[in-house]
From TrEMBL:
One of its GO terms (molecular function) is DNA binding. Homodimer. It comes from the Bacteria. Keywords: Coiled coil, Cytoplasm, DNA-binding. This is Nucleoid-associated protein EAH81_05370. It holds the Pfam family YbaB_DNA_bd. It comes from Flavobacterium pectinovorum.
């Protein structure tokens, strides 16, 4: 087994993962409440970019809080899914299959 070659490959893969994470900052996930009164945009790295709240929600604090929780959770789930798929693809594409190494990037 060529250890130096593998270490080089590992560094290359880590660089690709970093590049992918940077790119995921530019991938936007839009989510909204069922009635469209609350809209949220996240990056695929799960950073909130925008929150748009319809004025009608401002009159009911509890309803607004519920909307935020539900909609943010849905947006975070979608962003996480995109994030994991992208990073898994990079790790799988470049890594030689070494037993036990598949959990390294989780």
């Amino acid at each position: 087994m060529d250890l130096m070659g593998m270490m080089g490959k590992l560094k290359e893969t880590q660089q690709k993962i970093e590049d992918t994470k940077k790119r995921l900052d530019t991938v936007l996930i839009d989510e909204q409440s069922a009635d469209g009164l609350l809209k949220i945009t996240l990056t695929a790295n799960r950073k909130v970019k925008t929150i748009s709240i319809d004025d009608s929600l401002l009159e009911d604090k509890e309803q607004l809080e519920d909307y935020l929780i539900v909609t943010l959770n849905k947006a975070i789930e979608r962003a996480t899914s995109v994030n994991e798929q992208e990073l898994d693809a990079v790790a799988k594409m470049d890594m030689p299959m070494i037993p036990g190494m598949d959990n390294l990037f989780k």
